[in-house]
Amino acid sequence: MVGKPRITVIGAGAFGGWTALFLLRRGAQVVLLDAWGPGNSRSSSGGETRVLRCTYGPNQPYSRMAARATRLWKEHEERWGRQLVHRTGVLWMARAGSDEFERGSLHCLREASVAYEELSVGEITKRWPQINMEGVGWGIYEPEAGCLLARMACQTVLDGFRAEGGEYKQDAVLPSDLERGAKDGLSLADGSKLAADQYVFACGPWMGKLFPDTIGDKIRSTKQDVFFFGTPAGDARFSEENLPAWADHSDPFIYGIPGNQGRGFKIADDSRGYEFDPDLGERFVSMEALKKLREYLGFRFPAMRNAPLLETRVCQYENTPDRHFIIDRHPEEANIWLVGGGSKHGPALGEMIAELVMQGRDPDPLFRLARFGT
Q: Which residue, of 171, 193, 211, 278, is most buried by count of CB atoms within 10 Å of its CB?
């Protein structure tokens, strides 16, 4: 290949934006596409905040990837002069008698050199007496973890990409039989064609629509309701200065984030919701979910028992059947890469994909399509 390789990245979310940036830094000529813009409300990378933590259970690579992503966030916040991660710390509450996930996480945290504290119920209560610890056995506290300003982060990565010479187009790729490759380039919604040497599709919940045979329902989008409640006037106990982001690993699995740039106390059920169409789905929360989370809020945080609802959001998850990412070449078209199955670990994942694409290496078998038996 003569000159710089031409690479087009489709999707400017957490995976695509960082992949485009690292490809650019490795010497590629990169065009980044997105149908509605980075962090848009249809995307899985949009929304106000995401919890960033390294506790991911036993026997997995995600603690290490999250630790690498944390370091890259710090480096780029300094480079760009913008705070994107609020390092509130993250408290993970483990259930008494069913804590295999948490016990298994400790080894992975140590291997990844992640700072953490193993706390008893008494120690948690002493630090954060605003939490009712009934039913909790112990906890993991990651002091360097926190929450990411998700939408702003996607937009900032795009700004950095363009400042370093990358090209961005807000346009949509038409599903014009991509399973047969893109030898004549991609057909775009504005009627133009875009040709490249390699293509990286990181378009989240649209992956199955663009590649119905190869991806199909291997990436499934679900609707997740998110609520923001008002804290008591003058009560600083529920601010990000005095309370970490938290996760209650019970049944159901509930998590929350304080602060949220004045939007209130964020709380959501992490259980997978029903299937959701990113194009046509109406983004209304359910009253059933509101009732359940209001009851939980009053139980776990008694001072928030009568808190008013301030805002709601619909957060869109995308998951594979085994909940591992997809990172692989198209089985029939070696110049097409398919990336999806999540919206976190963006900097570390983008760095890894750029290396795979530019060096022509094979991805980890854990992420390859062959694991699905097709």
A: 211
